[in-house]
Amino acid sequence: SEIATAKTNQLPAFISEDKGAGLDGIDKYIRPQRIKIVQKTSGDAYSSYDSGTLLLTPEMTVFAKNEKGGEPETFQFVPLLFFPEYLKINPLGMDPFVAERSLDPNSSIAKRAINPDLRTEAHPDKEGAMIKYREVLNFIVMPYPATCQFFGTPIVLSFSSSSHRDGEKLLSLLKRRRMQGAPIYANIFEGRAQTRQNTFGTWYALDVQNPEAGEPFVGDKEVYEILKSLYDELNERREQIVVEHEDESAATTTEF
């Protein structure tokens, strides 16, 4: 099976005897790593990476390359969980970046985030600065196949503002698969960095599509059961999931 050939690191017996000492209570926090796309305007911390490179943050691990003169590296993934999130965003340069967040679609933050006429308001303490309300489409996904370097590490793909439509595209693809009876954790998709352009400029976004080659569904039963188990755990604890959002406004000033 695929999983049988995946890379594993065996824990030495003398270490396993201590049974995870010092990690009590760690399971109440779920903070998956998030995909960040390096932009030309990302700042000095990202100057060693080519624009369009996909990084896993906060570890700053290269997930997919986009080397100059070449094509962006494509990766496959299986969605495990989808959940929308609603953010109240402070003005640029003000901490914290996220003033408030909610998972409740009936919350006041959500109602402002989905209404184009209510998505901004003047900051009460900073003249001329604006507070923004934003809907974020979050997908926790598993890199695929089971033999790839990152299998076993759930990561977050977040779509908001100028990338919101790319998240809507993934939802549309999932709805089509659902018509065939497939649960979310049975579907294989591809992603890669791709340029977007409007009157404000050019930036990179995450383009998602059906696999160009190979099967669109997980074909190995053992791998499928692993993904199903992860879905069950994440779905049960979805309110404990914290996505670490950061200010991406320098990539483009467009709002969805």
Lay out the secondary structure.
Elements lengths: L12 H4 L16 E5 L16 E4 L3 E4 L10 E15 L8 E5 L5 H6 L6 E3 L7 E15 L10 E5 L4 H15 L10 E10 L2 E9 L11 H16 L20
Binned strand content:
25-35%
- Counted by DSSP, the helix tally is 4
Shape: globular
Q: Give the biggest beta sheet.
A: 10 strands, mixed
Tell me the total number of β-strands.
10
Structural class: alpha+beta
Low-confidence stretches: 1-8, 250-256
Helix content: 10-25%
Please state the CA-atom Rg, rounded to the nearest Å: 19 Å
N to C succession of SSEs: HEEEEEHEEEHEEH
What's the N-to-C terminus distance?
Answer: 43 Å
| Residue-averaged pLDDT | 85
Structure description:
The chain is α+β, with helices and mostly antiparallel strands and 256 residues long. Helices cover 16% and strands 29% of the residues. It contains 4 helices and 10 strands, in the order αβββββαβββαββα. It has helices at 13-16, 108-113, 164-178, 221-236; strands at 33-37, 54-57, 61-64, 75-89, 98-102, 120-122, 130-144, 155-159, 189-198, 201-209. Strands 1, 2, 3, 4, 5, 6, 7, 8, 9 and 10 form a 10-stranded mixed β-sheet that branches. A hairpin with an 8-residue loop joins β4 and β5 (98-102). It is globular, with a radius of gyration of 19 Å.
